[in-house]
Design a protein that fits this description.
Layout (H helix, E strand, L loop, with lengths): L11 H14 L3 H13 L11 H5 L9 H21 L2
């Protein structure tokens, strides 16, 4: 396999972000960097830290039909999950 090595100097804040991603996603540092590179290469932009739900879902809105249908589907799914959760007790 032909590969190259990369050394990156991170600020303490950036290092904390990497450690948090490792803990929450279970990924290696290498995989985090690779995914970030692929994301940048594809033109996708990461939402700012502390971004609201609208920013996080903006790429999905209207993607699968009308917003009205999507919201009713989400409500239906949430209600059915809540009912299942209540009845399991």
């Amino acid at each position: 396999m032909n590969s190259e090595f990369l050394t990156v100097r991170l600020s303490k804040e950036d290092a904390r972000v990497v450690h948090r991603l490792r803990a929450t996603m279970g990924l290696s540092k290498t995989e985090i960097v690779k995914r970030a590179l692929r994301s940048l290469a594809s033109g996708a932009t990461a939402p700012a830290e502390g971004a609201g739900l609208f920013e996080l879902g903006s790429g999905r809105f209207g993607r699968y039909g009308t917003v009205r249908r999507q919201s009713s589907d989400i409500k239906r799914i949430a209600r059915s999950r809540a009912i299942v959760k209540r009845t399991r007790r």
